[in-house]
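Bug report

Summary: structure tokens for AB hydrolase-1 domain-containing protein differ between web form and batch submission.
Environment: batch mode, default settings.
Steps: 1) Submit the sequence below via batch. 2) Compare with the web form result.

Sequence submitted:
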Amino acid sequence: MMRATKPTLVLIHGGWHVPSTYYKFTSSLRSAGFEVHVPRLPSMNEARPPNADLATDTALIRGYVESLVDAGRTVIAIMHSYGGQVGTNALYGLGLNDRSQQGLSGGVVHLVYMCAFAMVEGGSMVSKVQEFGHEHLLPLAFDFAEDNSCVDRDPKGLLVGPGIEDSEAEMYVSSLVRWNGTSMYQAVTHCAWREILVTYIYTSKDMTVLLGY
């Protein structure tokens, strides 16, 4: 009897983050026998002024995952924070069931939202913030430059939080980069979660993606 192969994991990272930010997480997954991919989103390329946004990120992730499923892989997408906006927009039509009905092998079998934004068509990260009347808090958390690139004002407090050793927190924060802040204002046009099985990981102490969101 053939042993079932594990699905391929694609981590779609959050704003300011890059693949190396997740080294501890991805190392654990690889140690557990998973193949893990963490493509770097173009909006985190640190260009000044920014030259990539949600559309660019969407195109990259769609092409990346499409190449995996076209090779017959089953994929689980793990989306973190802004990565939920990207994955929601990018992975429609790539579900295993949809592809199977077209006679195609491979497909995305699961969407895992890890304190990430799973909005409806026309929604964005900022529209969710506005829905809760919190738009006035954005300048307190995000430091926007004149070219609309941004950094987090307090990554240790807002992204890391208490309970982490200083050395690990410093390594995490030092990996973060400047991001095209306009990406969080741009609306999704597709919703992959309408077609693919979803798990949502709620984080009760997240200071950027609040539990209420």
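Above is the batch result. After comparison, the two runs are identical; trailing whitespace caused the diff. The chain has a mean pLDDT of 94. Residues 80 and 156 are 17 Å apart (CA to CA).
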